[in-house]
Design brief:
Elements lengths: L12 E7 L4 E18 L6 E2 L12 E8 L8 H11 L4 E2 L4 E2 L2 E5 L14 H9 L18 E2 L9 E2 L2 E8 L2 E8 L5 E4 L4 E4 L2 E2 L4 E2 L2 H7 L15 E8 L3 H18 E2 L9 E10 L3 H21 L4
Parallel strand pairs: 4-7, 16-18
Antiparallel strand pairs: 1-2, 2-4, 2-18, 3-7, 5-6, 8-9, 10-11, 11-16, 12-13, 12-17, 14-15
C-alpha cells in the first residue's frame, strides 16, 4: 500500500538503531537483490564510503546496503555491521569464493550532542540491519536523525531539534521516495507551503532569526560557516529503470530540493550527499524523475521537522 515512505518503492527494507543516552544512531536501507545506485555530493566536508564505486565507468553495478549514520567519520564503522548482517544472509556480489556485500554510506556530524565518546559502530549497524522491514515509516528523532539539529549559527542554545523525514510521490506507474537525515546549518522551509518551519530560534521572543542576516552582521568577528557541525544526507529510491549515470543525474536534480528547503546550504563545512537507487523496470523520462526527486526531497525535509518535537 502506498503510504508516503521510502519503502513504497518495492524491494527496499529500512531499519534503524539509536542510543538515546548518547543521542546518536544509524539507519540502513537494504536491497537484497541489489539496486543500481548513483550519488552526488554538493557539500564540501563529506563523510562517505564507497562513493567512487558508484562512478558510471566503474565495474560494480549494484549495491545491497545504504547506510546513513551519525557519529561523523567514526560512524562509517557501522557499515561493517551492515556487511556482517548481509554476509550472514548470503547477500552480495558473487566473487566465486564468497559473496561480498556492497555497502555505501554517508554520515552527519552529531558529536556535540549527547556523548561524543559513543558513536555508531559495527554493533549498531548490525542491529539497524536486523530491524529492517518492508513497512518502516519511522520519522523524527530516530536512527541517524537522533542527534540531528538545524539553525546552528548561534550554537545549540538557539538551534532546533530535527531528525529523519520520509516521503514519496506516485505519478502513474512511477514512484519516487526518499529518506532525509536533516542536520543543516541553515534555516528550514516548507517549500510547498512557502513558510519557514525551523532554524535559529529565539526562545525568549519566540521567533525565528535569519541565519544569513546574523552572519552579515557578524562577518568581521567570526566565520560561523567554518564549523564542521552540519550535513544533510538523503536516499532517493525509484521504480523507474535507471543505469548508474542516470541515477547520478537524479541525485544531482534532487539537490534542488535541498536548495528550496535549506538556506544556506552546501557550505564548506556541510557534507550534503544524496544517493539514488533504482529497483524497478518502469520506463520513465529522466528529467521528470529528477523533478519528482527534488519535490520528494523537499517533502522529506519538512517531515523531518514536523515529526521532531521542539
Amino acid at each position: 500500500m502506498y503510504k508516503g515512505k521510502l519503502t513504497d518503492v518495492q524491494g527496499i527494507k529500512l531499519g534503524h538503531y539509536q542510543d538515546y543516552k548518547a543521542m546518536t544512531g544509524c539507519s540502513v536501507a537494504i536491497v537484497e537483490d541489489g539496486a543500481i545506485c548513483g550519488v552526488d555530493v554538493r557539500g564540501s566536508a563529506p563523510g562517505t564510503r564507497e562513493t567512487d564505486l558508484l562512478k558510471p565507468e566503474n565495474y560494480v553495478q549494484k549495491v545491497h546496503g545504504i547506510l546513513l549514520s551519525g557519529g561523523s567519520a567514526y560512524g562509517l564503522n557501522a557499515a561493517t555491521g551492515v556487511m556482517k548482517y548481509l554476509e550472514e544472509k548470503n547477500i552480495g556480489l558473487d566473487v566465486d569464493v564468497c559473496k561480498v556485500p556492497i555497502v555505501v554510506a554517508a554520515v552527519i556530524f552529531d558529536l556535540n550532542i549527547g556523548d561524543h565518546r559513543i558513536r555508531p559502530d559495527e554493533k549498531m549497524g548490525y542491529l539497524a540491519s536486523a530491524n529492517a522491514s518492508y513497512d518502516d515509516n519511522s520519522q523524527g528523532i530516530v536512527g541517524a536523525g537522533t542527534g540531528a539539529s538545524v539553525g546552528k549559527i548561534l550554537g545549540n542554545d538557539f538551534s532546533m531539534n530535527s531528525g529523519i523525514g520520509q516521503a514519496s510521490i506516485k505519478v502513474g506507474d512511477i514512484i519516487v521516495s526518499s529518506i532525509t537525515v536533516l542536520n543543516a546549518f541553515g534555516d528550514i522551509y516548507d517549500y510547498e507551503k512557502q513558510k519557514q518551519i525551523a532554524g535559529v530560534y529565539d526562545k525568549d521572543r519566540k521567533e525565528f532569526l535569519n541565519t544569513n542576516k546574523i552572519y552579515e552582521k557578524n562577518i568581521k568577528e567570526f566565520n560561523a560557516f567554518n564549523k564542521p557541525t552540519n550535513t544533510t544526507i538523503s536516499l532517493v529510491a525509484t521504480n523507474a529503470k535507471l543505469d548508474k549515470a542516470q541515477a547520478k543525474k537524479i541525485s544531482q536534480m534532487a539537490h534542488d530540493g535541498y536548495a528550496r528547503s535549506i538556506n544556506p546550504v552546501h557550505t564548506m563545512f556541510d557534507g550534503d550527499t544524496i544517493f539514488t537507487i533504482s529497483t524497478g523496470d518502469k520506463k520513465a523520462d529522466i528529467s521528470f524523475v529528477g523533478s519528482m526527486a527534488a519535490k520528494v526531497i523537499s517533502r522529506s525535509i519538512a517531515n523531518a521537522i514536523y515529526k521532531s518535537k521542539n
